[in-house]
Amino acid sequence: MDAAQALASLMSPEGRVDPYPAYEWLRAHGPVAAAGPGLYAVTGHAEADELLRDPRVQVLDDNLRDGVMPQWRDSPALASIARSMLRTNPPDHSRMRRLAAAAFTPRRIAGLRDVVTAQAAELIDTLAAAGRDGRPVDFMTHFAYPLPVGVICALLGVPAADRPLFRRWAADLTGVLEPELTPDELASADAGATELRRYFTELVAARRRRPADDLTTALVQAHDAGDRLSAEELLANLVILLVAGFETTTNLLGNGLAVLLAHPAAADALRRHPEHAPAYVDELLRYDSPVQLTTRTTAEAVRVGGVELPAGSWLLLLLGAANRDPRRHPDPDRFDPWRAAPSPLSFGAGPHYCLGAGLARLEAQVAFPLLLRRLPELVPAGTPRRRIRLTLRGYDNLPVTVGRP
Ligand code: HEM
């Protein structure tokens, strides 16, 4: 199979459900494989890491975006994402990122531990109540979806009563992180973005009038050396915090729980030693990455892994494949929480390294030991259904039985 065929197989519905065979077929053509005219698929860990950190490697600029997605300027969803730090290059990216990082500090994240623990405990109660009498319950509906939304709302200062709205808008919008969108997905993303932007506009105005101890206020107030976020940048980056922080974390919880339930001895060891949660979570991130890929273009020619990438090349950086690169991770298809330094690329690398990595890790490090301890009889019930997506890898539903709490 040549690299273009391997890539086509990755794009097929079967490849989206289980991309790992296609990654191996691509890897057979080298860590950086020419997979189409001007298109390179990167499966090597070292090569993906190097490219993500290389200043000549950039996210799509407006000109390129006009070429591949001309409707973006008229789409509230696509334009919001395009104006956020996720899809911006220096110098705008560096300025926005610096201001956002000054607001989204490790201290603020650490301060959320009690909120995360309380929300996780409450959701475990509802999961247990729904699964009383041995009925199968969906882990995604009762836990993996509501926890990240609840935590983001707490972080931003959104009242608990508005969480269902946020959950709906976030679900409407997640399609925008995929490389392609159907017209229906774009229409619902635009509807969600319009309502979400209206909500944030009011929240920002309220925090300007009366500051609170939340991330929205910190972003409104963020400034240094005369720099501030413009009104549009503020909205776009509030939107990206929800879009980037929601289904990604949901997928870490869903994918991670499925792996733990399939490895009862490892799950039992975590139940007895919750202090090992950080190593477990990093190995879960590596083993079945919630974000499988990101894309870049080369502003200049770049040589990597022995391959010359001309200026204007398109790069498909397959983070999920890099996480299983045998040159970096011996026996990569084995889940092994005792592996030394799993060093997942699941949060990316370089200037766009995930701003919320600390928060996502915190949620999973709190949630898994708590779930295993509070629900010792938690087991899978029936076949889970995967979402048919390329970028965000997760489950539509993950049925479990919970036993007696
Ligand atoms: C960027 C993954 C959770 C906010 C990224 C990137 C990845 C990623 C791969 C880089 C994309 C690229 O280079 O093109 C994940 C995963 C998560 C997660 C796997 C959960 C397991 C979160 C959370 C938040 C968040 C909880 C915030 C509440 C962001 C932001 C960026 C980002 C703002 C853009 C950073 C920039 O461009 O400078 N994330 N993320 N993420 N993530 Fe996350």
How would you concisely characterize the structure shown here?
The protein has 405 residues and is α+β, with helices and mostly antiparallel strands.
Could you outline the blueprint of secondary structure elements for this entry?
Elements: H1 3-11, H2 13-17, H3 20-27, E1 32-36, E2 39-42, H4 45-53, E3 57-58, H5 62-68, H6 76-83, H7 92-103, H8 106-110, H9 113-130, E4 137-138, H10 139-144, H11 146-156, H12 163-173, H13 183-209, H14 215-221, E5 223-224, E6 227-228, H15 231-245, H16 247-262, H17 264-272, H18 277-287, E7 293-298, E8 302-304, E9 307-309, E10 314-318, H19 319-322, H20 357-374, E11 379-380, E12 385-386, E13 395-397, E14 399-401
Parallel strand pairs: 2-10
Antiparallel strand pairs: 1-2, 3-7, 4-14, 5-6, 7-10, 8-9, 11-14, 12-13
Helix pairs in contact: 1-3, 6-13, 6-15, 9-11, 9-20, 11-12, 12-13, 13-14, 13-15, 16-20, 17-20, 18-20
The structure holds protoporphyrin IX containing FE.
Keywords: Antibiotic biosynthesis, Heme, Iron, Metal-binding, Monooxygenase, NADP, Oxidoreductase
Family: Belongs to the cytochrome P450 family.
GO molecular function: heme binding; iron ion binding; monooxygenase activity; oxidoreductase activity, acting on paired donors, with incorporation or reduction of molecular oxygen
